[in-house]
Amino acid sequence: MEKKYALPSVLLVVLALGLVILPGKNDSRETDPNLLLSSVTEKSRYLSVDQITHRIIENDPTLMLIDLRPTSQFKTFALPGSINISSDSILSATNIERFNQPGKDKIFYANADLTAEMVWMVCARFSMKRIYVMKGGLNEWFHTIIEMKPVPVAASSSDLDLQSFRNAARQYFTGAGQKTVVPASGQSGEKVTVTRKAPGEKSGGGC
What we know:
It is a single chain. The chain is of the alpha/beta class. It has a single domain (about 45-205), classed as Rhodanese-like domain (Oxidized Rhodanese, domain 1, 3-Layer(aba) Sandwich), CATH 3.40.250. The protein has helices at about 5-20, 35-40, 50-55, 70-75, 95-100, 115-125, 135-145, 155-175, and strands at about 45, 65, 85, 105-110, 130-135. Strands 1-5-4-2-3 form a 5-stranded parallel sheet. Helix 1 (about 5-20) packs parallel to helix 6. It is globular and about 50 Å long.
């Protein structure tokens, strides 16, 4: 397991264990805590930023992006098509009705993983289907899609294909005329200044 995802995963396991150990209401809608604990240890809930980016560009009608960040951050920048929902209102009647729309993949994201992971667990506890977490959150999306990176000298054909996709995606999100700077090997390059409703800097180390 990658180090940066280790802590959130441990916290999720601890929270899931709490649901197993602590008694609760008998609600037929709720997933058995033991099954929930098993699902927490799997990675099938994750979708990569590349997968999400591809689906945004393709206008995938099954994609429902749910931005869990504060409204002020959402208004500054959000992934196209996202809806802003506070994490403490996830189980409101309005949101439950929204999440039960047929044929929709609900993708939770915040700046990093922790908030999205905890919301995913709450939704999983209440047997919601087709729920996912964008792995790494908006920070990872910015780092992977928006920031310009040099192509490794020994890049494989699959690496080159991926880099080509990310370059095209960067143009899609920043505008065709945006100038980008490729840093010299071993040096930090300038950050891309995003011109199509994108953040002026990384979202930062929030949850």
